[in-house]
């Protein structure tokens, strides 16, 4: 929910005044996912696993500052009370899951699926317009395609949850590592492209990460030919994801403190840190032979 909400913010910030209709649609989608996120947080109290709550994939200690600075730069309203609510989940007391809880989650998932379909359609339309030169945005076409793939990935996971589908853990791990290694590679390239030309050292570091994750993406794709290599690929993916997470975090701190020359919003930096934290948790689960 949070990721989709922030995608709406990044898209809204990238439009020109000419495309007021797209600005309004982005604002509407931001509000839809904000409301769904509040419901999810309220429903998660006492139920969410400590592992997820403390993983840094929901919020980080930089999120509030990143939201504040991004709202200042864009004048797009960002409700930081939601972030405070989400941060408090780590301290919630355990509670029992009832049949009513299950029904409420199923209803929430159905509404989340409809919202995800809506934002995926919006992103797809936007991408087609940009690629055919019918409109301009400051967001890279690859970034729009990137967040469209994330929306489709989210839809896939929600649909599997609703259908209670069983899956082969090893093959699911290979699928997700292919997906997330490509995401990490593209994050590296976005960072590289959003840096000021004078930030040569950071540019080179981001470029190196892009190459490493391109290689890891290919290795994960090739697992379909030899699943025996999965543990080795998982280990390399984990090591490099921890490294790029640390690099992203340093970059986000630099953006918040106005110490890095860039055209990236601080919230985009924190956003990609949280996605790396999510992937780190998933990779650790893959090593244990589970998917949560």
Report on this structure.
The chain is mostly helical. It has two domains: 1-47 and 95-165, Protein of unknown function DUF2935 (Ferritin), CATH 1.20.1260.120; 166-292, Ferritin, CATH 1.20.1260. Helices cover 74% and strands 0% of the residues. It has eleven helices and no strands. Helix 1 (2-14) packs antiparallel against helix 2 (20-44), helix 2 (20-44) packs antiparallel against helix 6 (99-131) and helix 8 (169-194) packs parallel to helix 10 (230-256). The protein is globular and about 50 Å long. The model has no long low-confidence stretch (mean pLDDT 96).
Structural class: mainly alpha
**Low-confidence parts, pLDDT < 50 over ≥5 residues?**
none
What is the 3D shape?
globular
Cα-atom Rg, whole angstroms? 19 Å
Helix content: over 70%
CATH C-level category of the largest domain = Mainly Alpha
- The first-to-last residue Cα distance is 17 Å
**What percentage of the residues does DSSP assign to strands (E)?**
under 5%
Mean pLDDT over all positions: 96
DSSP helix count? 11
CATH homologous superfamily label of the largest domain? Protein of unknown function DUF2935
CATH topology name of the largest domain, in short, is Ferritin
Query: How many DSSP E strands?
Result: 0
Tell me the series of helices and strands, N- to C-terminal.
Answer: HHHHHHHHHHH
The overall number of domains is: 2
Largest sheet: none
* Architecture per CATH nomenclature, i.e. the level-2 architecture of the largest domain: Up-down Bundle
């Amino acid at each position: 929910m949070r990721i989709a909400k922030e995608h709406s913010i990044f898209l809204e910030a990238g439009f020109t005044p000419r495309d007021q209709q797209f600005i309004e649609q982005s604002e509407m989608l931001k509000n839809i996912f904000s409301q769904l996120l509040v419901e999810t947080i309220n429903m998660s109290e006492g139920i969410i696993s400590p592992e997820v709550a403390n993983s840094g994939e929901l919020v980080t200690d930089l999120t509030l500052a990143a939201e504040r600075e991004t709202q200042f730069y864009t004048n797009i309203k960002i409700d930081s009370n939601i972030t405070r609510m989400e941060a408090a989940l780590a301290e919630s007391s355990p509670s029992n899951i009832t049949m009513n809880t299950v029904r409420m989650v199923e209803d929430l998932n159905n509404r989340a699926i409809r919202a995800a379909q809506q934002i995926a359609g919006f992103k797809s339309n936007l991408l087609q317009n940009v690629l055919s030169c019918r409109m301009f945005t400051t967001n890279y076409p690859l970034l729009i395609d990137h967040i469209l793939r994330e929306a489709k990935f989210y839809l896939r996971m929600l649909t599997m949850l609703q259908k209670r589908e069983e899956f082969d853990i090893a093959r699911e791990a290979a699928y997700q590592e292919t997906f997330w290694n490509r995401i990490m590679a593209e994050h590296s390239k976005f960072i590289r492209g959003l840096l000021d030309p004078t930030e040569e050292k950071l540019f080179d570091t981001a470029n190196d990460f892009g190459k490493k994750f391109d290689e890891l993406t290919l290795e994960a794709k090739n697992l379909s030919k030899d699943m025996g290599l999965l543990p080795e690929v998982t280990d390399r993916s984990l090591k490099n994801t921890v490294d790029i997470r640390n690099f992203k975090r340093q970059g986000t701190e630099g953006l918040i403190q106005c110490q890095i020359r860039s055209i990236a919003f601080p919230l985009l930096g924190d956003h990609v840190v949280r996605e790396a934290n999510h992937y780190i948790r998933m990779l650790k689960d893959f090593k244990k032979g589970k998917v949560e």
